[in-house]
Amino acid sequence: MAHVQITLLAGRTIEQKRRAVKRITDAMCEELHVKAEKLTISFVEVPRDSYARNGVLLSDRTDLK
């Protein structure tokens, strides 16, 4: 049994997540011999005002907008 947790900024589409889940599942099965039915994947979506880099909230950074 294996679990993959992905933390990322909120805003991806469901289609992007569908494609990512398929590719991650394929890679885990191929490289680590995990059975697809034993693999779980979760997305933890973080709003920009709850994520910081270099001491600054991403929502406050002007260079990323």
Description:
This protein has about 60 residues and is α+β, with helices and mostly antiparallel strands. The protein has a single domain, classed as Macrophage Migration Inhibitory Factor (2-Layer Sandwich), CATH 3.30.429.10. The chain is built from one helix and four strands, in the order βαβββ. The protein has one helix at about 15-30; strands at about 1-10, 40-45, 50-55, 55. The protein is elongated, with a radius of gyration of 15 Å. The mean pLDDT is about 95.
Summarize the SSE layout with pairings.
Elements: E1 2-9, H1 14-32, E2 39-46, E3 52-53, E4 56-57
Parallel strand pairs: 1-2
Antiparallel strand pairs: 3-4
Entry summary:
By secondary structure, the chain is an alpha+beta fold.
- Predict the CATH topology: Macrophage Migration Inhibitory Factor
Oligomeric status: single chain
Give the full name of the CATH homologous superfamily: Macrophage Migration Inhibitory Factor
Contiguous low-pLDDT stretches (5 residues minimum) are none
So what's the CATH class? Alpha Beta
The backbone outline, from C-alpha atoms, is elongated
Mean pLDDT: 95
Q: Count the E strands.
A: 4
Radius of gyration equals 15 Å
* Strand line-up of the largest beta sheet: 1-2
For the report, how would you describe the main beta sheet? 2 strands, parallel
User: Helical segment tally?
Assistant: 1
Order of helices and strands: EHEEE
Query: How much of the sequence is in beta strands?
Result: 25-35%
